Amino acid sequence: MEATINISSTSTEVYNNLLLGTNTHHFSTTQEKDLINKLKPITIRFPHGLWANWYDWRRDVTRLFGTESFDYEQGVNKTLRTKTVDKLENIKIFDRLDIKVGIEGLTSLNASRKLNTGKGFDMMWTFNMSADGTDFNNGCPETIARYDDLIARGFEVKVVEMGNENFYPGQRSSIIPNAEDYIARAKSMSAALKAKDPNIRVSIPLLRRDNWANPNWNTDLTQDLTYFDAVTVHTYVGSDPDDANASDEAYGTALTARKHLGNSIYDYAHQVAPNKPIWLTEWGVKSGGPNAVSALGMADCYIFMSENQDIFERANWFSVNGQLNSHYVWETYISPSGVERPRIKYPLEKTLFGSAYEIIRLALENTTLIESDMQVANLVDGVKAVNARVVTKDGKTSVFVVNLSNQDVPFNINIDGVAYTDAAIHKAMSFSSMDEERTMGIDVDPLTLIGDGNENITLPKFSINIIELSNASLSTSKIVKQDEISIYPNPNRGTFNIKLSHGEEVQYHIYSINGIEIQKGNFVSSKEIRLKNNQTGIFLMQLKGSQGTSTHKIVVN
Known about the structure:
The protein is α+β, with helices and mostly antiparallel strands. It has 10 helices and 35 strands. InterPro entries: GH, Glyco_hydro_b, Secre_tail.
């Protein structure tokens, strides 16, 4: 088997850094803050997971809202069932001990970031759908008070998830026991937040698989598409933290993770809300542990999302410094009370998830993606044995490649139809077996030099690779840089402006996400564009001029 990548250097797209987001925990102690500062997270999601449904922002604690158990309508026949709140005992302990979630520490971290970089964290806020009570017409006073508090603290509040996984009855409450109650509160919350800031964007949580308790959840929530801007989906490939019985930790599951991730969107959210962007605010890949196949599947999913930026708008790996899919090695210790407890090991060591993420971020962050096509055998139907993205950054062109196969694969590179045989620097993290686990110090480079020169390139089996093309001659020397184009407002309501930093004529073509051209024209320097089809959703705009070609996503609400 060999692989050939054909690069079309005139077709480009700016990489969306928000796909490199993570879920991070703990912001209070000096050690915890140092870890956050070392990570330099692309996005912080706060609060995270099911605890967001029980977050009391006034006390910065987790506590029960409503009663401990409640009746809800199960299934299409709406059979009354009784449900106890998930993790109830933990919620009671957190409340009784007044354990802080960490908004004060996060506030100071954000202030320091603003001081050092001029901009605070990109924040993904998850709001409590029970905090405003059972009067769904009350204007959401607690939600608005929380919004005002966050603004006063110096945070941006641009994106809000309306609840966390409320399709599970145990993550609802006696205040919003059924889908109709959730919808009523979500519509009220959306309206209240948009009254504060018309450009704020909100999401609803949709299922990624069938659900016994609420089989019609996705359909019910999307009968009206106007009250939300995006869809939150949580996809875990392999090990399932929500339901151990649903786990499939076969090694082949992780190796084909991109297919499972895609189907979790195509077969569910896209069936009811095909034009809404996906916020993948929790996701993970794990078959057996932080091993080779899990890291390979993880890396391939990042490539998959970069190939589908019209679908995936945000993604947050779960997690960085929590126990689930952690980037860091954990250990156990005996607490003063004599109980064995887990904690992150110091000095810090990274798992293969941490090493893979470091490579992925090095390869993709702040880059421009160049169109390419991979010619190689399939691992299974719908998953190629080798996948790659070609990128440029700071004048350098690199190929980020994942070899999912158990073979060393000769790798050929063609640029605009011409074979590239010049010098290349090839580094990789490779594995001898699918179940290999590897830990290393936090500052150790996970990449090993494979080759540096004009020799033929071979991808090691089970490997994550970065190949820098030392002397690539690309028409991408004329790529339109992101900071040379301003598109605003975006999202918008069908009218937006384009402003260029140069005064040359540019052609624009606007396409639906299905590739159908809906509008085109020419302009010099700037233009106001009014979409003619009066449709909401995601559109792609291609700009062509002497400066090069670029593609941009336009979101119409």
